[in-house]
Amino acid sequence: MEALSLLLNVLAQTLSIYTLILLVRVLLSWFPNLDWSNPVLATVSSITDPYLNAFRGLIPPLGGLDLSAIIAFIALNLVQQLLGGLSASLMGGGGIGY
């Protein structure tokens, strides 16, 4: 049980890191003159765009604003909370924690 709890915690922490990378990607999208062929920016884009594209198919841009990132962040947050809650319940805490 402890190994499963540890695995769930690692997954939750990995999703936290991914959330930060996703936030950087969304913030960088506000600057239209960035060179996305830059290796660092291209890497961030290649890591985050497939996930964002899944939500872009659900919510079309409204007035030029891409609101799909909001749903993407909500989905990540829900999964993180679920993993944290499962981990805590396996450890006997019963609450939500990472």
Précis, in short:
It contains three helices and no strands.
Key attributes of the depicted protein:
single chain; 98 residues; mainly alpha; 3 helices; 0% strand; elongated
Oligomer: single chain
Order of helices and strands: HHH
User: How far apart, in Å, are the first and last alpha carbons?
Assistant: 16 Å
Low-pLDDT segments, ≥5 res = none
Description:
This protein has 98 residues and is mainly alpha-helical. 69% of the residues lie in helices and 0% in strands. It has one domain (2-90). The chain has helices at residues 2-28, 39-56, 68-90. Helix 2 (39-56) crosses helix 3 (68-90). The longest helix is centred in the N-terminal third of the chain and has 27 residues, at 2-28.
